[in-house]
Amino acid sequence: MAGGLLNHSKKxxxxxxxxSGPVKVENQVERGDVVTDENTVTFPANVRxxxxxxxxxxxxxxxxxxxxxxxxxxxxLSERIEKLSDSDxxxxxRILNILEQKDYL
Length: 105
Hints:
The structure is a single chain. The termini are far apart. The chain is an all-alpha fold. Pfam families: DUF5388 (PF17363).
């Protein structure tokens, strides 16, 4: 089967790959810049709401209260948490810390 598909001898005159010099790192990243030792974990989660609440969040988003629905909900939560009494805020923080630790595990 002379002259078959795998006859590579005709390619010997073509240019071969030329290796460039060694790679030089210009901006070295430290491990601490990438890995954090925080005890928080963030992952997507769903909250079930009815269509009316969803529509209200979307409407607030559309008038510019936040750039995303997540931001709208976050802003509303922040405003409500700021209005808590001192004792309620302490209880809230304790419960929140327990839930955050549970997520970390």
